Amino acid sequence: MKSKTKRILMGIVSLCLSLVVPAWGADVIKIGFSGPLSGGAAKYGKNCEAGMIMAMEEINAKGGITVAGKKYKIEVVSLDDRYKPDLTVQNARRMTSLDNVPAVFCPHSGGILAMMNFNEKDGFIIMGYTTHPKTVEMGNKLIIRLPPDIRAYASAFSDRAKERGIKKIAAIPGVHEYAKIWMDIFQEEWPKRGGVVTDVSPADYMKETDFYTHLTKVIAGKPDAILLIGASEPAALIVKQARELGFQGKFILGDQAKLDEMLKVVPIEKLEGTIAVTPLTNRPIKDAPTFGKAYKKRFGEAEASTFESASHYESVYILAYAMEIAGTVSDVIKIRAAIPQVFPLEKRGTLAPTGVYGLRDNGAQLRITYGTEVIGGKWTEPFGIRY
Amino acid sequence: MNQMVRKWLILTILAIAVIIPLVVTNKYYMNILIMSGIWSIVALSLNLILGYTGQVNLAHGAFFGIGAYASALMMLKLNMNFWLVLPLAAAIAGFFGFLIGLPALRTRGSYFAIGTLCFNIIVTLIVDRWEGLTEGARGLMGIPGPSPIPLPWGAEITFKTMAAQYYLVLCFLLLTIFVLRRIIQSLVGRTFRAIRGNEELAEAVGIQPMRTKILSFTVSCFFAGIGGVLYASYIGFLSPEITDYHVSFDSLIYVMIGGVGTIVGPIIGTLLIVTIPETLHIAAEFRLLLYGLILIVMIIYLPRGIVGWLKSLKERKRKQEVSWEQS
Amino acid sequence: MVLFFQQLVNGIMLGAAYSLVALGLTLIYGILHIPNFAHGHKYMWAAFTSLFLVVNFHTNYWVSLVIAMVVLGFVGAGVERLVYRPLRNAPHVNSFIAAIGLLLFLESLSLIFWGADFRRFPTLYDKPIHIFGVAITLQRLLVIVAAALFIILLQVFIKRTWLGATIEAVAQNPEGAQLVGISIDRVSSLTFGIGTSLAAAAATLIAPIFLVYPTMGAMPNLKAFVVIIIGGMGSIPGAVIGGLMLGLMEALGGGYISTDYKDLFAFGALVTFLTFRPTGLFGKGVR
Q1: Which of A42, A209, A246 sits opposite C111 (nearest CB)?
Q2: Whether A278 contacts A306, CB under 8 Å
Q3: Which residues of chain B fall short of a pLDDT of 50?
Q4: Does the beta carbon of A14 lie under 8 angstroms from any beta carbon of chain B?
């Protein structure tokens, strides 16, 4: 028995230690991604991953990148962290130890903030897709934040709402952290335009499906418009249910909700008067439709390209060019310093479908983004939001 | 198992555990070991109420989370020292265990299970929505690691390296094992097992089930709290999911697969489940699929977990030997 | 006042939905004493099955409802045979674990088959009707009516048919039932089958109101448990009253007090019941 237990224990230990030997595939640079690939947020995670894969395939098809005279192919190492920060940490450690990735992409603030505890020490860049303000306020020198600033949207939409004569807005924000930040910022911006927030009724966009209770409460205050902050499909459901309840006002959509995805669930007539972020393919960024088409070609007609996939696509290119400019695939400080010199992407023949044009010192990416309204059953011309 | 052999086995394993950080410098493996250590503490504590007292507690994640959040808040908002915070936060977790145990333990079996599950959900909801206290979904970040311990000759022990953090977790794991083992082997522990066996009968022989169950539950939650504190200062970031019932489910699985009602079982279960998915480098959904399947198969055919199965093998061998001798 | 009536109607509809899901659960628990944690995921599979039929084969909505009920009925019986029956004499915690494993399995299978997308269930009944200033869609009315129908049907089945009697017999006294020649195995499979088809019916009825996606079963599952504890495990009227109570509590509490803590009402109610009246409103005895 003793030898049997011992043998089993030895077996377990060696199994643990015999994990994947660092794949020193000659001349391959690996870039890491840790995000939700299963569970409720799987679609979001896969969206981000898809953008990275598209960029990777394009780069490799052109022969890869040349760093300090040597040619490298890019490989995206993608691990599921089920939205849990401690798994993100585990994945990040795995990718930096075993795959020597210079950068790890992560699309949720929990994982990003957890990695920020040790990314400078262990020497890897965090490419974070999150709107959490703390990520660029902590003085971390190796973080890049991908999405645009919420305040840009909140103020632009407030301006537009004022122009349309809206005075009272009720809100149904999600309960996730992005929604709370959005709501806080909107609560600051809207009163500056002389408007009033009549009701705030938070709802769990991920878990709830019946929003009648929220809507009934909120509609009772007779708002001119309802602000929705959350993912596209649940937002579409809320719109549908609001119309069923007889609400005839307008909607304002936080940028997480994408009009084109919502149209899969609710017809455009129900969205009359909505102010939202422009669907990617409609932006007057000449690259956006091109990217959209290429995305559909790669992933199927049913798939719509999103800001997430477009942004991840760009950022893989940004990283790749930064490595070329810096002349190193492992010195992350040099790579980070080289990033501002990568722009404009168009000069390098690369699509920039979200219109990213620069990088702030604190790591936040700069871009012009666009808002849209739905008037007369159609999307209007986009209006630019610069910050 | 022969006492001598057992002692040597334990010493060997201990020696390996102590030497590991000197041999393994890869941060990824160290991370796995540290996390396994933390989850083992949680699993072991669950085992006390589940394995030895026979009550199916599905709220363990809540107490782990309470310990984690309590320690983080005390360190961040009150600037308290880690070493002071650790026992306090664990005590808070234990205290909540006591409070919840009072009404919950009056129910039995499935009612207790579902009741604890719902309590877990309530805790997660409160942690999520009470932003003034917990920052809600935004999470708490920048949780400091343990503060250095000054040594008499002017040097100090710091906890900045992974090796140091590993040893910290190892110490607490050993402490947990030691304390739990003492409890289990004491008279109190025997009353736990009496209740697991047959609560009415236990009452008939003079054991007070409510008192005993509450004691077991409180101690169990205390140690879950310790796990929480270690997690908070290692990962440095907390968000409400850490109190989620999925954590309770996970701990339950570690205990059941490893072997409920044994000391070694939860540790082995944790090690296996934390490390094996890392080796099974297949698509995420397929992994969960397999995981579910393995769970079902295991629970039907190896209900006492791996350790339980090994023990039954030993029993069978001994019976074989006995019958040989007799023939 | 309109607010109140609207919330009342919301509450009744929610309650009807919860009751329907809980019905299957309480049946299974009452007979087999297994809290079937994977119930919500079978509900999810039923929704996908009928969605698949309606979208790909253009089956009539009601036909697909029946087919989903039958298919899931068999799945339920199969699950009983393969997973729960071997665990019948094992400690309860083992059935929990098996249910958790089943839950993971069903969810990942769904993710693999259908992907993580949120899908819309096409329906003919989403025009709202206005009664006394209160708006309600036909589909929601259907849920209420159908729930009532199924409840009556179930009661009739249990009390008036021979098969139903065997189920009651096993619920009340398994050994006695065996003595008179009733096969516990058969009854278990039957019960599981019926319980699961009820969930399938609930899913198909409710799916057009909401969206269909792999994790859609998690919350209804939990709420169903709250319902059967409030109502009493194993009691059909309990599931109905419990469901209605829960629905109303959520709608009115959410409408008047706070939507932030809406879910808290449900789970708070459960804890209260567990503390003061664990057998629920109509429960039969201890455990």
Answers
A1: A42
A2: no
A3: none
A4: no
Is residue C283, in this structure, part of any structural domain at all? no
Closest-CA residue of B relative to C107 is B289
Instruction: Count Cβ neighbours within 10 Å for each residue of A255-274 and write b for 16 or more, e otherwise.
Output: bbbbbbbbbebbeeebbbbb
Three-state secondary structure call for residue B55: coil
**Phi, psi (degrees; rounded to nearest 5) at B308:** -60, -40
Can you tell me the ipTM of this complex?
0.80
When pLDDT is averaged across residues C135-157 and rounded to a whole number, the result is 83
* Residue-number span of the structural domain to which C186 is assigned: 2-276
Summarize pLDDT for B102-146 with one digit per residue, the tens.
888 887 777 788 788 888 988 998 898 888 888 877 788 888 888
Q: What DSSP string describes C34-101?
A: ---TTHHHHHHHHHHHHHHHHHHH---HHHHHHHHHHHHHHHHHHHIIIIIGGGTTS-HHHHHHHHHH
Is B32–A90 a contact, with Cβ atoms under 8 angstroms apart? yes
CA distance A52 to A315: 8
pLDDT (mean) for A96-105: 93
- How many of the other CB atoms lie within 10 Å of CB of C5? 14
Q: Cβ distance A56 to A76 under 8 Å? A: yes
User: Beta partners for A78?
Assistant: A33
Q: Where residue C216 sits, what CATH number does that domain have?
A: 1.10.3470
- Nearest CA to CA, how far is A202 from chain C (Å)? 6
Please write the tens of the pLDDT for every residue from A21-71.
444 445 899 999 999 987 667 788 989 999 999 999 999 998 889 998 889
The CA distances from residue A154 to A129, A260, A272, B32, B40, in Å, are 19, 20, 20, 42, 46
Burial of B178 (0-12, 13-18, 19+ CB in 10 A): exposed
Task: Report the C-alpha gap between B274 and C9 in whole angstroms.
Answer: 48
CA distance A25 to A27: 6
Nearest-CA neighbor of C103 among C42, C49, C194?
A: C42
- Which residue among B9, B35, B272 places its CB closest to the CB of A90? B35
Residue B52 CA to chain centroid, in angstroms? 14
Q: Are strands A103-106 and A250-253 parallel, antiparallel or unpaired?
A: unpaired
Residue A232 pLDDT more than 60? yes
Domain count, chain C: 1
Listed in order, strand segments (DSSP E) in A194-237 are: 196-200, 225-229
Is C282 part of any domain?
A: no
Kindly list the structural domains of chain B, giving each domain's residue range(s) and its CATH number in brackets, ordered by start: 27-149+159-326 (1.10.3470)
The one-letter amino acid at B178: F
